[in-house]
Specification:
The chain has 213 residues and is mostly helical. The protein has helices at residues 2-51, 55-81, 85-112, 142-149, 154-182, 186-212. The longest helix is centred in the first third of the chain and has 50 residues, at 2-51.
Length: 213
């Protein structure tokens, strides 16, 4: 008789644990579906918000794509020709960071129903003649800068690459600041803030590398 009485509380405790587990599972299984179901409306709202843009947003995305393409072209050359491992690594970092940002901005322009290249632009790397702030480096356009870099090697390459890329980054900061002043799209504004932070940090790094050459 004592044995059943001893087992009864244990059985009740076990049953309580099982029921609690079931209740938690039911709650857990409801959470994802609730999140998915509840997330449907915010996703639609987010899409609508993302499509809201003005001319400043369009210009920012179009021109920053071109600007990033130029940076990647220079960075890839640095990976091939840099005299120091630090400059080569910097080139790799720039290319890795800006490639995904280009794809992001292209997706925005597509969602906005806008062209991926500026009006009158030819796309790709043919942007040396564009009369836009932030596109020149030490008075040179992209083609002129690349032509000079291709003739250099070793420390001479590193020094000139850093000088030109610092000027290039400052141009990107200038373009991003214009977006913060005039833009409307929340994602574009967020990217502009990120570009300013990232490129100012890289400018500081490059200035330090220049001092060490």
């Amino acid at each position: 008789m004592n044995r059943p009485k001893t087992l009864l509380p244990a059985a009740i405790a076990t049953l309580a644990l099982v029921l609690a587990g079931c209740g938690e599972s039911a709650e857990d299984s409801g959470t994802p579906s609730g999140t998915a179901g509840g997330g449907g409306a915010p996703a639609t709202t987010q899409t609508a918000t993302d499509e809201a843009h003005n001319d400043a947003d369009t210009t920012f995305a179009q021109m920053m794509i071109v600007h990033h393409e130029g940076a990647i072209e220079m960075a890839d050359l640095a990976v091939q020709q840099a005299g120091s491992e630090e400059v080569r690594a910097l080139g790799e970092d720039i290319s890795a960071a800006q490639g995904p940002e280009i794809e992001k901005m292209k997706s925005w322009l597509s969602a906005w129903g806008e062209e991926s290249t500026p009006a009158g632009g030819t796309g790709g790397m043919d942007h040396g003649d564009m009369d836009m702030g932030g596109m020149e480096m030490d008075g040179m356009n992209q083609q002129e800068a690349m032509a000079e870099l291709q003739t250099l090697s070793g420390t001479d390459f590193d020094r000139r690459f850093l000088e030109l890329m610092i000027a290039h980054h400052r141009g990107a900061v200038e373009m991003a600041q214009a977006e913060l002043e005039d833009g409307r799209n929340p994602q574009a504004l967020e990217l502009a803030e990120k570009i300013i932070a990232d490129q100012e940090a890289e400018i500081a790094t490059m200035e330090q590398l220049l001092q060490n050459l």
